[in-house]
TrEMBL record, chains A, C, F:
One Gene Ontology CC term in the entry: plasma membrane
UniProt GO BP: phosphoenolpyruvate-dependent sugar phosphotransferase system
Protein's UniProt name: PTS sugar transporter
Transmembrane segments: 95-119, 139-164, 176-199, 205-236
Sections of the chain in a coiled coil: none
Sorted UniProt keywords: Cell membrane, Membrane, Phosphotransferase system, Sugar transport, Transmembrane, Transmembrane helix, Transport
PANTHER family assigned to the protein according to its UniProt record, in alphabetical order: N-ACETYLGALACTOSAMINE PERMEASE II COMPONENT-RELATED, N-ACETYLGALACTOSAMINE PERMEASE IIC COMPONENT 1
Topology class, membrane: Multi-pass membrane protein
The organism of origin for this protein: Sporolactobacillus terrae
Pfam families, per the entry: EII-Sor
Location in the cell: Cell membrane
Automatic annotation (TrEMBL), chains B, D, E:
Membrane-crossing residue ranges in chain numbering: 23-47, 125-150, 184-205, 253-272
One term under GO cellular component: plasma membrane
Protein name in the entry: PTS mannose transporter subunit IID
Species annotation: Sporolactobacillus terrae
Pfam families membership: EIID-AGA
GO biological process: phosphoenolpyruvate-dependent sugar phosphotransferase system
Keyword line: Membrane, Transmembrane, Transmembrane helix
């Protein structure tokens, strides 16, 4: 019972803390697993589980509202089970990915069916300038969202590793695989949400340029960010120059060249 | 221009309050308003300071409860900008209130694209790489170093972003908007954002079909190879664009997500993936 | 005699069919060899020869009027000889490349010295609105071009593999090698013909950009096509914007930006 | 705009005839007119339909027997465009007849560059890769699948290209031409074409010198390495540009081709390649 | 336009004299004027020819003793240009003398960036690669072949550069300058120069920290790896930009160089590098 | 004594000749070492030393006034010592890099403290139209600069390899390493000097684009030069077009396109 409680707490601190503290990354396995280990009295095992899972879930990011998997649940449970099995980390590794994929689906359900319906209240409170109402709702939604989620590790630890394993085993392999496939595709939804905010026919071509660079040059994102920034700056400089030409077609500000009068606007564009 | 020099002490205090509140922006994340609740919560100090009339406050709160989504470290920059516009609005009678949410929505996309890739794609990976090594060596400071290393730039960007947004807002944004320069800025940021999202589409959305045809034990057709020779990452690209089309047709995000889960299971059942 | 006839037929169907049916790729070894095999009663050997030669001649393309080699002749003969040698494909592989190079030279001769002189007739027919004349000439040239070419495999099979081999052996190695070198250089003529259609001093720089990308990044052509399309679109967008600025310097169409009035022209440019 | 919606039924029939005839465009390929004979043949249905006067027909046939060369799948797009201009010409007295061949020649280059690389360089390779595997496994469908797979897009592009060309032509091309937008389009297509031709020059023209100097059995000078360190693919580049210079100086293609054969043999005799 | 056709025989002689003198431009290289002394020396033939008055000559000599630095093979191009402007000046009373040094300084940067990378970075490497092989085989011609191979283009560029500069100068540069086209040229050359300098910064400035932390014998933190994952070559980039900032703040080159030596020793003492 | 003299001479010819003869590369090890070998009577050893050191110092270039090392001193001494040790090249290799680094520091000192102070004289001579003075100073500075430098190999050979080695050994390792680190960083000063000549806020972005290309694509400089030239030309074409639009907003010169009137200016821009 204590074990179940503290693992649930560790997971809650992870997922809820991540959002409360400004995308603080508390929900990453490298944080959740040692925390669970600490509370369970074996921090070393927690560290090892955390390191292993952090590597396994390195590619799992959280963009828009879609993700590949939810790793903190897996981190908490894996720590608990590994400690029970005398610190043997290797035996729990095979179940962490299925767990994380399943965790994500459950998280999505809470998000959609619990948080979704509550959100309309924000508008009604706002209309009445009911600031207390907004604040309470804001934090209540936060609590209920992640507290519900924390029930999963609570019961999972309570019933024990065997039950969890048998539950996982009872999910047909083809379904489990399907969830993994879906998990790998889910970031597409995040991309689509970003696209919806960014897209415009006239500049859509740049989306493809980012894709082709990544697909065929396989650069780290930071290199693409630098290249993208260079492109954006060069384009903005030309736009600025044209803007000026148009508003003051007499002036001699053409060459975007080496030495022209730096007025305030240029200053802004650095 | 030194950051924030033309902001009064009192205003700085307001910005600082917003900074702390913005931390929780996604606490009430939900499929309808995303961070809208948190945005309104973060704007309250300003709203209460600028508007004395209850109706004005209600109007402002309603404005800022709307759908909003961007990456947390850049959120306060937009809040600061919006706050400076609320200030204008509270003073000038003829102010175009619509422009406040127009700016918010035009900035949130580009900044999300840029910020997500930098903070999730680059910086988190660097920090985690280091922390994994520490943890493997049994160092109990691993999680703490990880959190500090990641969050120092995270918080600094959010802190100074707020100040920058508010001071730029009061000095520039209005003007830029008026003479059309904001379009240039937005376009540039969007271009960068689109490039990053394009790159992330390839690197984060994963799909490999296991479909292949054999004859007499020899593989004669590896579908993934064909797909790769047409265009590497063509499936992630098409799926992302498909989701985007659905979103544009007002299909809800939640529906799309569950559709994707079903798609995954179907593909698995058909032994395609 | 039957063998000679059907191999000649297979080669004729390949080269003549390719051009008659709209660049249908009938002349590729993967088509000609199984066809020859079928007619010779051993389609399996034809398939194997076709697969091997298709791989060998993968880089042989037909652009402008120059090429590296003409592979269908080699495909037809290799199939015939392989079948005669009891389905042994490996023994014919060494002669296919010399054969294809030689085939190309002969094809070029027909093209130049047979088809060339006939072409002038098109103009005289046209001037008299003699449509029948044009049509007849069109198909007569097609027939004679490839029928003449098909005589080569006909006699080659008639005389047998040994004679072909001894002919090839009797061509000095240095000449054969020279023909191969020439074959590798010949696509340059195709490139030059394309250049003649595309070149203009002002945009010549893009030719070199394509070259430098291929030389140093070694990307597949499709990736270069995507990159090139992106460049072309971005450039056209800017051109369009400038065009508009010039014709309507008052209008506010500068930023090529996110939201401007979509008029018909923009529509066209998608 | 739905493709071809504003074309009458009768015209559609003409386009379809042209589509079938365009298939044979290169049947009478020759060094003087290349596909000119086939072009004229493909235009006949239109010419006979638009012009009732024998002299007009003769003039049109002469126009379209001229030198013409582009990649087959894109040929019908140009034919369609030309047909729509012939229609104009048959109706409007003052029509600038010269512009018909001007458009033809300005389009054929870019489209050849783009089309050759896509159909020869990309799609054929994909189809052949698959067919080779099938054939190795002894599947007698290999050639058939190869032909179908390659030709479906080939024919579709040629079919819809024809319709597109004819309907665009009548609606847009004239207008584009008039207000100079055609220049922008042509430039964009040419830029893409030039990039592709540049890339193909490197990947398809092959040259490696075997020239090398040794001393005491040790190689001291590998000429190809020197050439590569100056610029990879410098020889193919220079040879292609050389051929281009010759073509511009009105040296015949045939002469150049035979010159190249001689060059090859000479290089071989001199043990350079 | 054929090179130098509009230059008189006498002028050609002057250019040739300058060509030979320009060879020694850096003989008196020093931290104050760099190649300024040699520049003045190279200009003497022209100065004496154009100006009969001692004061004019002194003024010209003073102009050309100023700080000047560019890569040797391109130096004579700038000298030629300057010479043609001196000629103008000697004839036209109202000539803007300032413009002479303005042109010189605006050209020297771009040309140095381009020239250094081509002659030092590309051509020297090619020649040395060949010579090393020759020398290893014991061929005593190795150094001679190296020198001839490197210097033929080196001298040719300097020779024709001088003629080009002088003939362009008298015909074009003035005009280009007048109607602002020189700005376009300078900008283009500077862009190319900056790209090359950026590339050389990464390839020529080397820094690798050996800093790394271990625990129980396992390395847990390799600082260089972290730096590389932030941005490859970030340290060379920052150090170069740092030096540049110092130069802009008028810190002397010499001071910076010695500061760098001290920095190196300090880094070594701290076991950082 | 003879040995010391001729080695000093070889080094002098190298460094002084390089600058006198227009960046003639006489100071490269591949030249200095065989020359020293020749004068010392063992050219073969000189060749081998030259080849080895040229490879070692391949990356050492001389841009602006900063460098990684000064290789000619090392080349001269290494040749002398190798010959003395019976042609054994391997034993001298370990000292060449420290020597070259040290040589660079000494060269920098002469450059700063000897040549620096003399330079002001140029201005005073110029003011008096004292051309003789300028010429004499020019060549005197040349001579003293490199003659002083040549004293180092002179004394080094005089005292012998053992002394040189013990001097090198007596410099603490950490200092020697520090000098190497400094040598590797020194080209930054050259880059900074080039930047000072090139930099302008508006085009600064291109510096970073060069850096990102080299860092992540690792291309040879020639490829980057071609790419850079393409960028510069495309940009200049657009600038030119805008310039024209502005000066003659009526004219129809927009598209920078395929066929427009080639006037003189365009001609110039080729
Ligand atoms: O994409 C914007 C934003 O979306 C949210 O919902 C979160 O997942 C954030 O981590 C992310 O930055
Ligand atoms: O380049 C255009 C065109 O040239 C031809 O002669 C044929 O070889 C075609 O395959 C090619 O598409
Ligand atoms: O950078 C310009 C120039 O600087 C000098 O001092 C020399 O080192 C030259 O080799 C170099 O070309």
């Amino acid at each position: 019972m204590y074990d179940a409680l503290v693992v649930a707490l560790a997971v809650f601190i992870g997922v809820a803390g991540h959002e409360l503290l400004g995308m603080a990354m508390l929900s990453r396995p490298i944080v959740v697993a040692p925390l669970a280990g600490l509370l369970l009295g074996d921090i070393q095992t927690g560290l090892i589980v955390g390191a292993s899972l952090e590597a396994i879930f390195m590619g799992v990011v959280n963009i828009g509202i879609s993700s590949t998997a939810e790793p903190s649940l897996a981190a908490g449970l894996a720590t608990a089970f590994a400690i029970k099995m005398g610190g043997n980390v290797d035996v729990v590794i095979p179940i962490v990915f299925p767990l994380a994929v399943l965790g994500l689906q459950l998280m999505n359900m809470i998000f959609s069916f619990v948080c979704g319906p509550m959100a309309a209240k924000f508008f009604s409170f706002a209309k009445e300038d009911n600031q207390k109402g907004i604040i309470n709702l804001h934090f209540f939604m936060w609590f209920i969202h992640y507290a519900l989620y924390a029930l999963i590790p609570f019961f999972a630890v309570l019933f024990g590793a065997d039950v969890v394993k048998s539950v996982l085993d009872n999910i047909p392999k083809v379904i489990m695989n399907g969830l993994t496939v879906a998990g790998n595709l889910l970031p597409a939804v995040g991309m689509a949400m970003l696209l919806q905010m960014l897209w415009s026919k006239k500049i859509a071509v740049w989306f493809f340029s980012g894709a082709v660079i990544m697909a065929y040059f396989n650069l780290p994102l930071i290199a693409i960010a630098v290249i993208g920034a260079i492109i954006a700056i060069v384009m903005a400089q030309r736009d600025l120059q044209l803007k000026k030409m148009q508003t003051a077609p007499q002036a001699n500000t053409i060459t975007a060249g080496t030495r022209t009068i730096d007025d305030e606007e240029e200053d802004f564009f650095k | 221009m030194k950051l924030g020099q033309q902001i009064s002490k009192e205003e700085k205090k307001l910005v600082r309050k917003m900074f702390w509140r913005s931390m929780t922006m996604y606490a009430s994340v939900n499929p309808v308003t995303m961070g809208g609740g948190g945005f309104a919560y973060s704007m309250m100090p300003f709203i209460n300071h600028f508007y004395k009339d209850k109706n004005d406050r209600a109007a402002a709160l309603e404005r800022h409860s709307q759908y909003f989504s961007t990456t947390i470290p850049f959120a306060s920059f937009i809040m600061g900008t919006a706050a400076s516009m609320e200030k204008e609005n509270s003073k000038k009678p003829g102010f175009d209130v619509e422009s406040i949410n127009a700016i918010k929505t035009s900035l949130m996309g580009p900044l999300a694209g840029i910020g997500d890739s930098l903070f999730w794609g680059v910086w988190r990976v660097v920090c985690a790489g280091l922390a994994i090594n520490l943890a493997h060596a049994g160092n109990i400071l691993a999680p703490i170093i990880f959190l500090i290393m990641f969050n120092v730039p995270n918080y600094l960007v959010r802190y100074y972003g707020g100040i920058l947004g508010y001071s730029l807002g009061s000095k520039y944004i209005q003007k830029l908007y008026a003479n059309g320069l904001i379009e240039i800025l937005t376009k540039a940021a969007s271009v960068l954002g689109l490039i990053m999202v394009g790159a992330m589409t390839i690197s984060m959305v994963k799909f490999d079909t296991i479909l292949s045809f054999s004859m007499d034990g020899k593989e004669i057709l590896n579908v993934q190879k064909i797909l790769d020779s047409i265009f590497k990452g063509i499936v992630p690209l098409l799926i992302s664009l498909g989701c985007f089309k659905l979103l544009q047709k007002k299909v809800g995000v939640i529906k799309i997500i569950f559709g994707m889960v079903i798609l995954g299971i179907v593909l698995s059942l058909l032994r395609i993936a």
